[in-house]
């Protein structure tokens, strides 16, 4: 396999010799051309990890290498400006007194002014901002400012770019559009990126792979599909979207759950907590199903699909279905699992966690 563009091994960062680590033995690798996201709740250590990679923070332990060059390690700390890494901050940090073109040309050194200006122009065209070169940043929309910040980072063609919550200042529609455009741009240029966010949907739709972080550690690394459909911990299962938890008795690759006997994604024994996404359950007419009988207690119609809340055996479950068949609150239905349940390695003992639908993930 080729050398990863970024390799972070056992990175630990503490602010003060006696302070507890805010990043603790974090390891991950980013392949060439890959968009990698670090996803986690506020305060879990995402920005600190990114700042260590950029060189703004000195690692307390562990190593950081870009291609074959060690940037941080025992006795090594390469300064930020000597790292071939570009960074896009949350607030864009554009210079208000410079034009868009000047902002982009600012980071290009070595060349003549004419050459820098020409390069800035080229990158501005690439991000769809030709025609805006002579404006000042405050006369641009949030999405356009975002693209100026990105153009400024792309102009020196760094090996790797780091993005810290880059879309957080944009409204929902603009955020979706901008991140699609940025993703296409990075992919067209074959650039590698590490992108930090607390927004689940953003990480799932923007990244090729993501790491879920909590309390300074990485719980799981995988593709969006892997972490969403095969969460390894209770935290990952709950943080990535709503799910149903089922306290179950496992015997090999099957378990008795409150929704009947189901297959498991991996062998387990004894009392286990398993997760089943709402879209992996079906609602059926009870007379034509061998599913678990329950009562519809709520329904959220979303146009293309419907989420039902169904009460079975005293617990409420979420079932996400297409809208070919309608049920009303009060209807008797059968709930049938469509896919194997996912065994969670919960850090809390399963008995503390009741069966049923999880609440809305934060934030
Ligand atoms: N310079 C610093 N000195 C002391 N503590 C710090 C410093 N910078 C960050 N921290 C602490 O480290 C922890 C992790 O912060 P960090 O900014 O990395 O989290 P985050 O996951 O990026 O959060 P957010 O999404 O809110 O930005 C927090 O408890 C924060 O208070």
UniProtKB/TrEMBL annotation:
Keywords linked to the UniProt accession: ATP-binding, Nucleotide-binding, Transport
Domain ABC transporter, chain residue ranges per copy: 6-240
Protein name, entry field: Iron(III) ABC transporter, ATP-binding protein
PANTHER family: SPERMIDINE/PUTRESCINE IMPORT ATP-BINDING PROTEIN POTA, SPERMIDINE_PUTRESCINE IMPORT ATP-BINDING PROTEIN POTA
Example GO biological process: quaternary ammonium group transport
GO cellular component, as recorded: ATP-binding cassette (ABC) transporter complex
Keyword GTP-binding belongs to the record: no
Organism superkingdom: Bacteria
Species of origin: Salinibacter ruber (strain DSM 13855 / M31)
Lineage: Bacteria, Pseudomonadati, Rhodothermota, Rhodothermia, Rhodothermales
MF (Gene Ontology): ATP binding; ATP hydrolysis activity; transmembrane transporter activity
InterPro entries, alphabetized: AAA+_ATPase (IPR003593), ABC_SmlMolc_Importer (IPR050093), ABC_transporter-like_ATP-bd (IPR003439), ABC_transporter-like_CS (IPR017871), Mo/tungstate-bd_C_term_dom (IPR008995), P-loop_NTPase (IPR027417), Transp-assoc_OB_typ2 (IPR013611)
